[in-house]
Design a protein that fits this description.
alpha/beta; 11 strands; 9-stranded mixed beta sheet; two-stranded antiparallel sheet
Amino acid sequence: MATTSHDRYIRDDYADDELTGDEMGVREFSDESRCSSPTWSIYSYESSVDHQRMLREIHGRVFNNTSEFYMLPADAPEHCRLDMQHEMLKKKMNGLWLRPDAVHRALAPKQTEVPSILDVGAGSGCWVLDVAKLFPHADVVGIDLAPANLNSPPPPNCRFECDDVNLGLEQYYGSFDVVNARCVSSGIADYRAFLEDVGQVLRPGGVFQSIECDLQLYDDQFRPITARTEDDPGFSWTQKIALASLCAMEARGPGIRAGPQIPKWLREMEGVWEETGEKVLWIPIGPWGEDSLGERSRYVAELMRQDALRFTSSVRPLLLTAGYFEETLDLWTERVHDELRHLRKRMYIRWICAWGIKRRKPGDDVFY
């Protein structure tokens, strides 16, 4: 019988940790660091040949040209935001894994096959690059709808492929020991079917982990912010633009609502997992609780604020396409920036995490 692990409320108020180097402040995440460079994928990407095929421009930003579901940019400014988000989650989680012991077991060197890792929705490629350096003996593959903007060649044990998981993952069945999926639900038409595919992709003992951001924001008492108009008590402009984005994404497909359901869907996959688990990460938008936050936690909170500020630009083309007027979005963006820069509201963002460890063959060692 599969076991289920619950660690539902992990707040960002743990004891102060010593930081080093650029962790003492928010390090620079520059768009210029993501200049155009050869993109490593399943085929050679040449902008003069493939730009119109793979990418398109909408309201001044560059998007994938493959899927209508995923409507966030695929350009250097967005990849810069994703780099920042990656740094934030890595610091909050104290690493890259929800179940590090299970991951290290799955990726132990083997005599018969090379350990392999798949990142679904690789985005800027930063997660893939980190993992490839941590596990030089493993093959690491990142797939996405659009090429990553790499500013240097990746390690020799990793590669990037352009693919749409909505078309199925049959080509990867039985090929990977770890599958990572972070902030991809809005681009997946049927997340339950995707999980069925993941179960087939993983080898016995393999690990799946998912992290999704809830666009419903919460106050400093962890209550949903429900005020909808400026005159309502507790109203937030950040919540207003987040909910508008949520509705616009949902109009393109139901995937954006999948996050809270993923742990339940994993448990319902009878016979696939020997363990499933879930965890909720609460991250404040900005260091508004500085007296109770340690230095590392303040760093994480500041990265979350910077992520939220840049998110307003990321969703602007989506909202324009959905019918909002430019003047409306200009006003909303101005109010959001004022609210966040001056920490006028004490708000949390909820990150929903889930994992599954695939059932192993009889006779394999139990390791937990």
